Amino acid sequence: MYLQGTFTATKDENGKKICTYPLKLSIPDSPSKGKNNSGSKDSEKSKLEEMRDQLRDLQINWISKFGEEESQSIYDKLVVEHDSHIPLHVARIQALDAQMQTYSFIRNKDDKGSTTVSNGDVESGNKNNSTVRLESAGNGEKLLLVGKDLLKTCDKILTMIDRPALLAFYGSRSNSAQVDAAKTKQSTDRQKTALVEALVKKGLVFCEYYHLKTYCNLEPDVEVTLEDLDAIMFELQRFADMNDPKVTTFCATLYSEHQI
């Protein structure tokens, strides 16, 4: 189907005789709407599933609000039935990250903006400072334990998300007429958000591990180098908005480790 006629850009009658151009507009057919053949049983089933999903999501929202034991307990119960549900694991890494900040050496700031390890010790290169050793005996060991669980959950999220498929989706021209296009985009956006969250949290754990080994003489289970940190930054640049506050936190932490 199309419309055909002429077009002119002037209002002058003499000009219209000279500056007139043929015009042909093609009009695509409107997309056909799929028929909804779901019966009453499917409707009742969807309501039951919706109730279960809401109960699941309610419990997930509380994972990061409880203490360590309660948070772990809720996660362990939910993961039995919803292990493939990515938001469950995202809530878990957010809870673990909050615990890590309690023991963190490089993200705990005092009123003057200094980290737990004094700037003087860092600038002088004094890796055997007694204060650092004293703190590492307590907070450092706890940080390693929490970091181990956090890395495990981050890696689980990263294996659940198809990164090439994400890049292909955002690199392709979207088709709004496609069936369930809005739902597909919403689901893909959630996967990207979870991916960025997992990469940032993993990067922050790596920064803590690198700091502990370099300045506190503790040996994490995972060997971390600056190249590993740069690799996470490179991966973030493929998917994340670099102005995202989560990402800038990791960028600032990575920069500080490069400066030491």
Please tell me about this protein's structure:
The protein is mainly alpha-helical and 260 residues long. It has one domain (64-259): Alpha Horseshoe (Serine Threonine Protein Phosphatase 5, Tetratricopeptide repeat), CATH 1.25.40. The protein contains ten helices and two strands, in the order βαβααααααααα. It has helices at 13-18, 40-63, 68-81, 86-103, 119-124, 130-160, 163-171, 181-215, 226-239, 245-259, and strands spanning 2-8, 20-26. α4 runs parallel beside α8. The longest helix has 35 residues, at 181-215.
What is this structure, in a nutshell?
66% of the residues lie in helices and 5% in strands. By secondary structure, the chain is mainly alpha-helical.
Question: Could you list some keywords that capture this structure?
Answer:
about 260 residues, mainly alpha, Serine Threonine Protein Phosphatase 5, Tetratricopeptide repeat, two-stranded antiparallel ribbon, 10 helices
Please count the helical segments.
Answer: 10
The average pLDDT score comes to 79
Reported for the largest beta sheet, the result is: 2 strands, antiparallel
The CATH class, by name, is: Mainly Alpha
Number of strands: 2
Q: How much β-strand is present in the residues?
A: 5-15%
Order of helix and strand elements from N to C terminus? EHEHHHHHHHHH
What is the helix fraction of residues, given as a range?
55-70%
The CA-CA distance between the termini, in Å, is 68 Å
